[in-house]
Amino acid sequence: MPTYVMLVNWTDQGIRTVTEGPKRVDAAKALLKDMGGEFKSLYMTMGRYDLVVVYDAPDDAVAARFTLMLGKTGNVRTSSMKAFSEQAFRQIVTSIG
Questions:
Q1: Statement: the pTM of the whole predicted model exceeds 0.90
Q2: Would you say the C-alpha torsion 7, 9, 13, 15 has a positive or negative sign?
Q3: pLDDT at 97
């Protein structure tokens, strides 16, 4: 299953209600699980981003739908990246020749 890294910033609405954050994370985990995916890890960070989430999803369409549904809540803005494992990295680089 593909892995994705999501960089998250709270919106003004999201930071005003940050104490509801744990409940929102639980809801996001349940949403992703219903879509066939799974949270791998979540980190609150200091600096440019407020949270970093690593998750698996069945495909890019599910990952896109998941991020759109999170954004629709108005609490976060996200930037997502598809991630490749070390094994996949080695295979890709080796295939270059």
A1: yes
A2: positive
A3: 79
Do the beta carbons of residue 40 and residue 57 sit within 8 Å?
no
Q: Are 26 and 43 in contact (CB under 8 A)?
A: no
CA 89 to chain CA centroid, Å, is 20
Give the three-class secondary structure for 84: coil
Question: What Cα–Cα distance (Å) separates residue 83 from each residue in 51, 60, 75, 96?
Answer: 17, 11, 24, 19
The closest alpha carbon to 66, from 41, 18, 14, 29, belongs to 29
Query: How many CB atoms within 10 Å of residue 26?
Result: 10
Model confidence pLDDT, tens digit, residues 64-76:
999 999 999 999 9
Interatomic CA distance for residues 55 and 5, integer angstroms: 7
